[in-house]
Amino acid sequence: MAAVLACGPGAVLSHESAAVLWGIRRSRPGKVQISVPTAGGRRRDGITVHRRRLLTGRDLTHRRGIPVTGIVCTIVDLTSELRINQVERVINEADQLGLIDPETLRRALEDTRRRPGVAKLRALLDRRTFRLTRSELERLFLGIVRRAGLPMPLTRQIVNGFEVDFYWPELGLVVETDGLRYHRTPQQQERGLVRDQIHAGAGLIPLRYSHGQIKFNEEHVPAVLVAGAVRAVSP
Questions:
Q1: What number does CATH give the domain 134-233?
Q2: Do 10 and 36 form a contact (C-beta atoms < 8 A)?
Q3: Low-confidence ranges of the chain (pLDDT < 50)
Q4: How far, in Å, CA of 84 to CA of 94, rounded?
Q5: What is the Cα–Cα distance from 160 to 191, expressed in whole angstroms?
Q6: Residues β-bridged to residue 154
Q7: The pLDDT of residue 122
Q8: Three-state secondary structure call for residue 32
């Protein structure tokens, strides 16, 4: 708060300092980072000042009484400075803390002005948060099945009380496509585990893929699928 006040009207905590306040990055030695309107702000020892004319009201908020960039703006700012794996950790932390999930973050970027970090963050999230429609998903997955030389599965069948995405009754094989968040909520994780455990307890082989794997990983999906089929028919 002292750093924000020292930089004059319109100043807000931003970048790494904002991330620490939000709890998505750990505090590290270094200068406090503050963003100010282009025409405002005063330089102070121990403070890095970012002069920015593109920040709007939707980019700003308060946390613990301190003016700070909002969670979306903060993640965008970090993306312009961090490596991809570090950005993924930041998004994961924000998700686990209930601040924002990847799907909501991706939607928020649709209305975010072009600035450093936006394009990079969109590219990262596109592979995680896009959602195939039922028909698209089935078309892509069935193409994988066909190329792998496996028989066609039944789709949207009720098995052990659950609707499953793909089912081979002759192989005892069930395939589900997961939701698209890095870490689903504990309740979602619990439901997915229970489904798999019930299927396994009934003698089936449950497999799970993300939509991203079906769309982008042309080698992993059929390899695991074939291994599951081989296991199903092995004595």
A1: 3.40.960.10
A2: yes
A3: 180-183
A4: 15
A5: 14
A6: 167
A7: 87
A8: strand
